[in-house]
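TA notes, week 10

Several of you asked for a full example with nothing omitted. So below is the full record: structure tokens for the whole chain, then the designed sequence directly under it. When grading your own attempts, check the secondary structure regions first.
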């Protein structure tokens, strides 16, 4: 299937109102009871990484924060590369480690779920427990399938584009990076000369006597297709769990929304924790709690795991890890209007 630019249906936007949500204490109790039977699959979106300094695609009111999408990943990658897991990532990692929520399906390409549980799980365990639905920014492939380490590729681009490298270093020194979306795309000044940007050729292709400057991050960009293998794995994860917990996503992309619909068709309980309108609002039988995950999820995990949260040194460390670094509030988030009435 292809990933389209995220949208929320007009009907959902029309129906969305500022309703009072439950208190944090009630939310903690409700979500903890949802997790307590165990065997829960988790589906995450860009909202879980906001506290790591990575902006979500949408603001609280549902507007798409960067509708004029263009790939400018060379400058956008460093902020994602340097981002660290926040308390929500670590809380979910604790649930994974405790086998309460063994699998996470994430729409995020920032790798922060991997970073959160890296000290507890090896590469093979993480590859099994975390499905990156839309790929990862941390690796690159050429059009012939040759893999390139992302930082090595960044360095290659810097050599081929000294003026861009100098600009990137200037941004680093000034601590004034351009606004970055979760996919590593950035907003650059109007009039930026993209035609002067040089993409270095794949060194493996050159060794095979072939010129090839078609390289891209291993990310499914809007308009591209998710592989059948990833699609099948995402359905398999939903099928093998008894419940589906959704956090930090509007479910605007169909690759995620269809998993929710599948869970409902299989009569599995679904609970959403997110701020603002989501496509889940158009489905019956889904409980939705509108609170920021960072405010309550650590308390949820402590409630679910009980004394284990203190006795187990790994879980204790996970539940006391994570810093909050929210993105600057430098965008306008108007209430989106339906296209027709």
């Amino acid at each position: 299937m292809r990933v389209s630019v995220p949208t929320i249906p007009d009907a959902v936007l029309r129906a969305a109102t500022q309703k009072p949500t439950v208190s944090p204490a009630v939310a903690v109790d409700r979500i903890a009871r949802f997790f307590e039977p165990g065997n829960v699959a988790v589906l995450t979106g860009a909202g879980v990484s906001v506290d790591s300094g990575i902006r979500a695609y949408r603001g609280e009111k549902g507007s798409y924060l960067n509708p004029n999408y263009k790939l400018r990943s060379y400058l956008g990658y460093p902020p994602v590369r340097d981002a660290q897991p926040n308390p929500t990532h670590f809380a979910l990692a604790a649930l994974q480690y405790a086998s309460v929520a063994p699998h996470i399906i994430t729409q995020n390409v920032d790798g922060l779920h991997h970073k959160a549980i890296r000290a507890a799980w090896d590469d093979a365990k993480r590859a099994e427990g975390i499905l990156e639905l839309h790929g990862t920014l941390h690796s690159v492939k050429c059009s012939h399938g040759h893999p390139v380490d992302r930082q090595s590729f960044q360095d290659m681009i810097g050599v081929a584009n000294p003026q861009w490298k100098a600009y990137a270093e200037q941004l680093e020194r000034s601590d004034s990076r351009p606004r970055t979306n979760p996919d590593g795309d950035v907003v650059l000044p109007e009039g930026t000369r993209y035609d002067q940007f040089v993409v270095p050729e794949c060194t493996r292709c050159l060794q095979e006597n072939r010129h090839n400057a078609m390289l891209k991050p291993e990310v499914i960009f809007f308009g591209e297709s998710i592989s059948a293998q990833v699609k099948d794995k995402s359905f398999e994860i939903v099928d093998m769990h008894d419940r589906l917990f959704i956090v930090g996503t509007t479910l605007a992309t169909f690759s995620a929304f269809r998993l929710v619909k599948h869970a409902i068709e299989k009569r599995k309980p679904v609970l959403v924790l997110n701020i603002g309108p989501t496509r889940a609002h158009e489905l019956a039988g889904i409980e939705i709690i509108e609170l920021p995950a960072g405010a309550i999820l650590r308390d949820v995990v402590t409630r679910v795991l009980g004394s284990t949260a203190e006795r187990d040194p790994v879980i204790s460390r996970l539940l006391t890890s994570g810093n909050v670094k929210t993105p600057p509030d430098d965008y306008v988030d108007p209430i989106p209007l339906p296209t027709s009435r």
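The chain has a mean pLDDT of 86. Use that as a sanity check on your answer.
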